[in-house]
Design a protein that fits this description.
single chain; alpha/beta; eight-stranded mixed β-sheet; two-stranded parallel ribbon; 12 helices; 10 strands; globular
């Protein structure tokens, strides 16, 4: 179970966005626990909000690691007809609801704040009440990838577009010492070995194309048509009209154009915003994990991501313990 610290100096932990890179937050928590250091306040954006919520719900770092390792991320990606996003998000929300035992914020072991963005009021929203899983679904809704979630009368998207690393939020909660986990540092990318197993990104490519073709086929040859004609024409569609461009995409050479534009745009804006905010931020400890060849979609590399977080936190532990007055 997650533990609360008894020290007088209140420690706040800000867990940033970053897709699969956010699994490094588990490594951060593992090292803190190893040295008997327990956060008093938590704030998270996107993937950071998920890790923070599970920890605040009572998961120990070891339990978090096991949960991340055994979760089949590809099976909780529910594709939808591309209108406002490719992924509906219902399966992920359902999974999160089970993981946090359908808790409200008031039932958490540690005070938590979740960052999202309100599309209707055009402002950052810091969620601290109501359903935890619903708030997480709002915080992880990457524009153009996830369908925005509607809560009451408003629609919400990923908080990373306004606050990628919410050090300001955890400070406002009352933290006297702030640890901000920055997943957007300028680490040089190093090429690594070719991984044979499919990443979530390659799975995304294939599932998108399969769904897209199915939509086209159902539109051209609707169910109301006579069975034999429909079956014959759909067979011909699959056999002869399967585009060369689709094969190119499935081979991993390019992303679906809209997905590529949307993700790259958000990625660039978020990276720039995160770096600018962190540059002059009044933070006691900025932890910057070095990911090398690991990317935002590498959910199949849980152990590697966690070790990246452990290495980064271990480097700052002596300084942190000194500031907290811990021997």
């Amino acid at each position: 179970m997650a533990k609360k610290r008894g020290n007088k100096i209140k420690l706040g932990l800000a867990l940033g966005a970053g897709g699969a890179k956010g699994l490094a937050h588990i490594g951060i928590l593992k090292v803190l626990h190893k040295h008997k250091i327990y956060p008093d306040y938590l704030a998270g954006t996107s993937m950071g909000s998920i890790i923070g919520a599970l920890y605040a719900s009572g998961y120990s770092p070891k339990e978090l690691q096991e949960t991340a390792r055994t979760t089949n991320w590809k099976k909780i990606v529910d594709f939808t007809i591309p209108k406002a996003g490719f992924i509906q998000g219902d399966l992920i929300e359902s999974k999160l609801k089970r993981l946090v035992q359908n808790k409200d914020f008031s039932e958490l072991d540690i005070p938590l704040r979740v960052v999202s963005y309100n599309l209707d009021t055009h402002e950052k929203v810091v969620i601290s009440k109501g359903s935890v899983s619903r708030s997480l679904r709002a915080s992880i809704s990457i524009p153009g990838i996830f369908t925005p979630i509607k809560i009451d009368k408003n629609h919400f998207i990923d908080g990373a577009v306004v606050d990628p690393t919410p050090f300001d939020v955890v400070k406002e909660m009352g933290a006297e010492i702030v640890i901000a986990v920055d997943l957007f540092n300028k680490a040089k990318t190093v090429s690594g070995p070719v991984v044979k197993s499919k990443s979530l990104l390659s799975e995304f490519r294939e599932m998108f194309i399969v769904q897209e073709l199915l939509n086209i086929k159902n539109y051209i040859f609707p169910d109301r048509w006579p069975g034999f004609i429909k079956k014959t024409l759909r067979w011909a569609f699959d056999k002869f009209l399967y585009p060369a461009k689709v094969l190119k995409i499935l081979a991993g050479k390019e992303l679906p154009p809209l997905a590529q534009v949307m993700y790259e745009t958000i990625n660039v804006l978020t990276n720039n915003l995160a770096r600018e905010r962190m540059k002059n931020a009044d933070i006691d400890f900025k932890i910057s994990p070095i990911f090398k060849n690991l990317t935002w979609s590498d959910f199949d590399k849980t152990e590697e991501m966690i070790k990246v977080g452990e290495r980064a936190m271990n480097q700052r532990i002596p300084e942190l313990k000194k500031k907290l007055g811990i021997k």
